[in-house]
Amino acid sequence: MDVGIAGSAREAAALAADLVAAALVGSTSPVLGVATGSSPVGIYDELAQRVARGELSLAGASAFMLDEYVGLPVGHPQAYRAVIDEIFTRKVDIDPSRVHGPDGGASDVEGACAAYESAIRDAGGVDVQILGIGTDGHIAFNEPSSSLASRTRIKTLTRQTRLDNARFFGGDLDAVPTHCLTQGVGTILEAREIVVVATGAAKSEAVRQMVEGAVSARWPATALQLHPRVTVLLDPEAAARLELADYYREVWANKPDWQRP
Ligand code: F6R
Questions:
Q1: Are 211 and 95 in contact (CB under 8 A)?
Q2: Residue of the nearest CA to atom 8 in ligand 1?
Q3: Is the CB of residue 48 less than 8 Å from the CB of residue 42?
Q4: What is the pLDDT of residues 68-90, one digit of tens each?
Q5: Which residue of 41, 97, 130, 182 could cross-link 140, Cys pair, CB 3.0 to 4.6 Å?
Q6: Is 258 a residue whose pLDDT tops 90?
């Protein structure tokens, strides 16, 4: 696991965008894994600026979302399909019909989850996955106790996650759905490269566990330690509890050029 401690959230987003862009060039039909929530917004803005400057194109790319709420009416502004359109799809030159997400409104939930797994496989798998992390250590919506081998399925959100996300629902906890469809930890680990971004003090304990904790379903993000190509990009607040922060800074500062995007 490569840990980059940036000077600010903005710098972390720019570094993450460098990695994502580098993973996408060289393929005419790359596959990007996209997270929703606040963490990746700066990355998408960076990618959008590069597209606008003509330095990058996602015209041939497809994208797969991590998760979707269950129970929100179609077109609800907080449905992750609507959120990803807002923060990513409409800002870049990707074909909207190639941005996929799990069907949170499906009556056949198992069938919808299996179909989503097949769609990712049929696209050739995810080249680079962008991830945020929950304050409770979730990745996608794999909440504590999720199997580290799990595949796309329905999950119950923890109260902590619903409290964290109530800010998107006008602060109304009751308006936050209780369930979601989410890629599993096993699904995520099949991405060829993973870029995690975390900012702010509220993430510092989850970040400590993800980077330095024992691999355990108690903190699902710890499963990322089992993946050979993960980069974690942090601002100083999110990195504040890392025991080996000085070492990560030294490694990052002394990376040979060939290891940089
Ligand atoms: C979103 C997702 C979640 C978020 C996490 C952090 O698709 O899968 O794991 O990445 O809840 O959310 P923010 O970035 O809003 O703090």
A1: no
A2: 140
A3: no
A4: 999 998 889 999 999 999 999 99
A5: 182
A6: no
